[in-house]
Every structure is written in C-alpha cells, then in structure tokens.
Automatic annotation (TrEMBL):
<dbReference type="Pfam" id="PF08402">
    <property type="entry name" value="TOBE_2"/>
</dbReference>
<keyword id="KW-1003">Cell membrane</keyword>
<keyword id="KW-0067">ATP-binding</keyword>
<dbReference type="InterPro" id="IPR017871">
    <property type="entry name" value="ABC_transporter-like_CS"/>
</dbReference>
<protein>
    <submittedName>
        <fullName>ABC transporter ATP-binding protein</fullName>
    </submittedName>
</protein>
<keyword id="KW-0813">Transport</keyword>
<dbReference type="InterPro" id="IPR047641">
    <property type="entry name" value="ABC_transpr_MalK/UgpC-like"/>
</dbReference>
<keyword id="KW-0547">Nucleotide-binding</keyword>
<comment type="similarity">
    <text>Belongs to the ABC transporter superfamily.</text>
</comment>
<dbReference type="InterPro" id="IPR027417">
    <property type="entry name" value="P-loop_NTPase"/>
</dbReference>
<dbReference type="InterPro" id="IPR003439">
    <property type="entry name" value="ABC_transporter-like_ATP-bd"/>
</dbReference>
<dbReference type="GO" id="GO:0005524">
    <property type="term" value="F:ATP binding"/>
</dbReference>
<feature type="domain" description="ABC transporter">
    <location>
        <begin position="4"/>
        <end position="236"/>
    </location>
</feature>
<dbReference type="InterPro" id="IPR013611">
    <property type="entry name" value="Transp-assoc_OB_typ2"/>
</dbReference>
<keyword id="KW-0472">Membrane</keyword>
<dbReference type="InterPro" id="IPR012340">
    <property type="entry name" value="NA-bd_OB-fold"/>
</dbReference>
<dbReference type="InterPro" id="IPR008995">
    <property type="entry name" value="Mo/tungstate-bd_C_term_dom"/>
</dbReference>
C-alpha cells in the first residue's frame, strides 16, 4: 500500500468557512486509518482533499508515496471511493458497473473480465453478476461499490460512512468483511465514521476530530483507555462524568479518596504549560473531571460501599443489565450488573469505584 502524507494542510471554503484548521497527517502504507468525529467536524473534507475533489489552501501539500499530488486532478490520483450513497449506474448490471472504470482505463478485455470475476468472488456477489443495480438490496449495492473501487487497484481507498444506511446486523457483518479484505489486500485505506464502535473495530489507528482539528491520533486501545481530553473521552463512550477534586496525590469525591497512582488514566498536568499533552504529572491541586464507562462503578455490600445511589431504570441487555442510578453526581450514572442480580427500580444501592477504569482530567 501507498503511504499518504498531508502536510500543513488547511481548508477554507469560498464562503469563508474554515472547515479544517492547520494539520499534518500521515497514513502508513497498508494501514487502515479511521477518521472519527461528530457531524460537521471536517471528515469528508479531508477525504475530498485526498481524492482531489477539493484542494488545500496555499501552503498545504499532499503526497502519495514520493508523488506530489497537491495540484493533481482526481483522474491522475488513482483513488478508490465508496460513499454512503452508492453512486452506481442503476440500469447497468453488477458486472458492468465493476468493469466500467477498467474500461475507462483501457484495461484490455481479457484482463478486465478476469479482474471483474475475481472482485465479484471476493465480495461474494459472483451470483449477482448479471443483475441490475436497482434489483439489489442496500448491502449488496455496497458490495458492488467496494468491488468497483478495489478493481481499479487504487493507491488509496477512501470510504465515507459506507455502512451508515444499512441495518445494524448487516453493518457488523460487512465491517468484519471489509476489515479482513483490507488486511488481506494490504490496501492503504481511510475510513470515515461517526460510530465509535465501528472505528474501534476497523482502525489500525483512529483520528478523533473536533471542529476541524485533530483532537487525538492513536490505536483503538490508546483512544479508548487513554483519551487526551474530555471531548475524546466523552465521544468514545465514557459517558459517565463526575466532578471531583485533586488534593496532593489523590482524587477526592465527597468522602471518597483514591490515590492517583491507582487511577487507570490521570492527566493532571497542564498540557499547555508543560508542552506535553501526554504528561502524567501527578501533583497539584484543583478541580477534576472524572469520566468512566459502565464498568467504572460496581454495586457492592453496604459495608464495602464508597458511595450510595438509587436505581432509576433497568435495561435488560441479555449478557448484562444496565442500571441508571441517581444520587451519585449532578446527573444520572449508568452501571452494569449481572442480569440475574435481584434488583428493582427504587432500590438504594452501595457502590465502589473501579479506579483502574477511571479517567481523570485535572482542571486549572
Ligand atoms: P463531516 O464530514 O465531518 O460531517 P464536512 O467535512 O462535510 O464534515 O464539513 C466540515 C465543515 O465544512 C462543515 O461546517 C460544513 O458545513 C463545511 N463545508 C463543507 N463543504 C463546504 C462547502 N463546499 N462550502 C462551505 N462550507 C462547507
Ligand atoms: Mg461527512
């Protein structure tokens, strides 16, 4: 796979919208990089810059391997694209759709047929070769779109929320297939999604974006376990938040005191002042934002409890039950229990923190 590099890129649209603030980004050859972020944060704009559908502001540079493509047109770049809407030719057959780009590229007949056949087989749609696009389901259409994009042997494959329009079960199935396909073929790929689970499942690395800027780049584990900011923590699903304080080397929450050394991820330095956003300087005083998922707090026996709450709602999820609990912070907290655990709405419960699963940001 080709290494893709964007250097000192920004994007300002003619109407003055600053869609992308200055950023550098490298996608390694063969890597699947996921762009994750809320709607409007600039994900599609990055893909369009790489595709050549938009150009970066003056000063920005885009290279594919050794090749400077900054001012190159889309035709010259050899990018494959798959979007949420299929952009297939509805009245052509599946095989004709996949063959189309190869015809444009003047790939000779025999090789074209062979490549189309191989692609359809790989995407498990060989039996649909002679069907028209308008006779296919949404999932089948996305398979055709993928086959068409990959058949061209692109230097980079760009996927913009390709599974968003599909139902949940099919989404999981197709993302698993895309995952193994990209690895098998060693294609450099950039995959855009606003779904954190999809991002975790697919990405070698994830870029979390916020308002036109890169908030964090890291492996799924790094993003999940060591978010660099409250925005990232919240966006990747650490939806419980409590206010605390930091005193000496401890996190303090009402009567509860936990040594910072036990906290899974604590960022208590001032990232701007010490210039190292990964700093774990474990000192100082001040306010703290505490983030955690449903596994950050557990029900326990009354004499073991650190904090009390009241059950407001119970969702049975099969392998676990998820409780909504009030009385612990300003807003409600969610936590998980064994689905066979006897509990009812209105019950008072005693809970203990799982320090290893807490993320703490010092505020100064
Ligand atoms: P995302 O894909 O993350 O939802 P986009 O890259 O589509 O975000 O858009 C980023 C920002 O740029 C948004 O504020 C959007 O309204 C703006 N934008 C996108 N395209 C244009 C355009 N052609 N002209 C002006 N503003 C645009
Ligand atoms: Mg978009």
């Amino acid at each position: 796979g080709t290494r893709i590099e964007l250097a000192r890129c920004t994007k300002t649209f003619p109407d003055g919208t600053r869609a992308l603030l200055p950023f550098d980004l490298t996608i390694n050859g063969g890597e699947t990089l996921v762009l994750l972020g809320p709607s409007g944060c600039g994900k599609t704009t990055i893909l369009r810059l790489i595709a050549g559908l938009e150009f970066p502001d003056a000063g920005g540079k885009i290279t594919f391997g050794e090749d400077d493509v900054t001012r190159q047109s889309i035709e010259k770049r050899r990018v494959g694209m798959v979007f949420q809407s299929y952009a297939l030719f509805p009245n052509m057959t599946v095989a004709e759709n996949v063959a189309y780009g190869l015809k444009v590229q003047k790939v000779e007949r025999r090789e074209r047929d062979e490549r189309v056949r191989a692609m359809l087989e790989m995407m498990h749609i060989d039996m649909l070769a002679d069907r028209r696009i308008d006779q296919l389901s949404g999932g089948q259409r996305q398979r055709v779109a993928l086959a068409r994009a990959i058949a061209l042997r692109p230097r980079v494959l760009l996927l913009d929320e390709p599974l968003t329009a599909l139902d949940a079960k099919l989404r999981v199935k197709l993302r698993t297939e895309i995952n193994s396909l990209l690895r098998k073929l060693g294609i450099t790929a950039i995959y855009v999604t606003h779904d954190q689970e999809e991002a975790m499942a697919l990405g070698d690395r994830i870029v979390v974006m916020q308002k036109g800027a890169i908030a964090q780049i890291g492996t799924p584990r790094e993003i999940y376990r060591a978010p660099l900011s409250p925005f990232v923590a919240d966006f990747v699903g650490a939806s419980n938040r409590l206010d605390g304080r930091i005193e000496q080397n401890s996190l303090v929450l009402g009567d509860v005191k936990i040594s910072l050394d036990q906290i899974g991820h604590a960022m208590t330095g001032d990232p701007i002042k010490n210039g190292d956003s990964n700093s774990n300087s474990r000192s100082g005083q001040g306010l703290a934002d505490i983030y955690f998922r449903a596994d950050g707090l557990a029900i326990c026996a009354p004499d073991q409890g650190q904090i009390r709450g009241r059950v407001e709602a119970i969702s049975y999820l099969g392998e676990k039950s998820r409780l909504t609990v009030s009385g612990i912070g300003e807003s409600v907290i969610t936590l998980d229990v064994d689905p066979d655990f006897q509990i009812a709405i209105g019950d008072d419960i005693h809970c203990r923190f799982n320090p290893e699963r807490l993320t703490v940001f010092g505020r100064y």
